[in-house]
Amino acid sequence: MSYKSTRGGEKGIGFSEAVLKGIAADGGLFVPEQDIKFDSLELAEMCEMDYKALAAHIFRRYAEDLTDGEIEYCVDRAYGSGSRFDGRDPAPLTRLNETLSVLELWHGPTAAFKDMALQVLPAFMSVALKKRQDNAGGSSGSTAQNGAAPFANEKIAILTATSGDTGKAAMEGFRDAEGIDIMVFFPENGVSEMQRTQMQTQEGKNVRVAAVRGNFDDAQTGVKKIFGDDEFKALLKECGYRLSSANSINIGRLIPQVVYYFHAYFSLVRAERINLGAPVNFVVPTGNFGDILAAYYAYKNGLPIGRLICATNSNSVVSDFIHTGFYNANREFKVTISPAMDILISSNLERLVYDMSCEDEKTTSKLMAELSSAGCYNVDRSTLSGISSLFWSDSSTEEETRRTISDVWNQYDYLIDPHTAVGVNVFDKYVISTGDLTPTVAVATASPFKFNGSVAESIFDCPKDSSEFAVQQKLSEMTGLDIPLPLRGLDKKPLLHTGVCDKDEMKDAVLEFLLREDPGAERN
Ligand SMILES: *Cc1c(COP(=O)(O)O)cnc(C)c1O
User: Fold this and answer.
1) From the alpha carbon of 417, which atom of ligand 1 is closest?
2) What Å distances lie between residue 257 and 104, 248, 263, 297, 424, CA to CA?
3) Does the reported pTM lie above 0.90?
4) Summary mean pLDDT of the chain
């Protein structure tokens, strides 16, 4: 299996190379160059596997340049006996009613679904880095004119701007990873108290967090500027560092997400809710289009999926696109109670557009250029009909999202977070609109205890002036549910990262971190 850019500039790239690069040199995203198909016999075998074995089985096909031993190392670290998920099954399925089950993807160390991939991406990167150094060492004769083999002894510096869940999950994933340092920037006044505390209490020898004076766009633009600054990158290179990113366009984040769709399907088969081969629908709360794109890849790999239901909040760019074929980011950005889905540029959609336009790299490049210059693009009729034959989409207003949290709690004694509620609400609309009662899995992307304020106010009257942690406690008492361990007692942990910088000081902050005196001894 090799990878190519959606914009045609790169081809024949191995998995580990694509993981290290993150984004192709032409600005496109890496996509698989060959088809992967599991036939019904193989699906029957996979149905018997536990999560770890299933992940290894799927990775062997997507990451052919990794050895079995390397894959074993990666899946064991992420999902094996020493894993940081809180139960034996990292992705348990809970049945709500005859039709609907919920796939809980929030049992990892940061209580959001980002952990499913970010617990394994660092291992992919370490393995890839080691491979590259070994290769460089083996061919050092031909590169001697540069004085040293490229990449040998080079460390990776991961830079990420976050509006919420990604930064924390990335740091937990990369914490103490060999040969990798990670720095996260968050907007000083743009994250919830829970999210800020989660980040500022982050432990690990190789992590640093800084607040940026400004909003998320300022932090994001600052990071992008650093990635585009050749002079700065040359300076880092002299210091032995190469920049990389952990955001959701990295193919090393996408592939691990394919696994849980298979796992959810097989869980339904093992529970005798469906027969192997029968179709299942999935409903996915969508922001950057990474999670639902992984479902689409599972579909292409032969998983019997009926419809993919794409749920958006009132930032309904993607939903409007699926209806009309017109992607238009020129609209007001709305701050909602499902902030991880507050997004106007859904980067991973590029991969779907590429696929549905028959892998037309010229068209994809043209559309993406239009997106960046004019903020919008139109796909042709056949691309749109390809998309709408599989995808169904709608959005949920703030009011509907709150009411769904309350309805699900009252009907099923089951507590969901606002992102998951967007999904469940859109599923209701799907059933009303189509009458389709195919067994459906709703993807639960975060623990309700990560969004205490909006969850609590949806199900009971809580005083507006209570602190985040008081509300969390009250929510737990009222519902009788345990607060997930990683979210418990955060208010009593020491704040290790209280630095704040201006947006034009971010480069200095990066340098100061990477060139710290005694990296190994920091923040134990
Ligand atoms: C990131 C995130 C999403 C959106 O996922 P995408 O892959 O960006 O579509 C939804 N819910 C939560 C809680 C998230 O953290």
Assistant:
1) 13
2) 13, 11, 10, 9, 20
3) yes
4) 92
